[in-house]
Amino acid sequence: MPQHQSCKKRLRQAEKANAMNRAARAEIRASLKAIRTATSKDAALAEMPKLFRLLDVAANKSRAGFNANRAANYKAKVAKVINGFA
Question: What's the whole-model pTM score?
Answer without folding.
Answer: 0.88
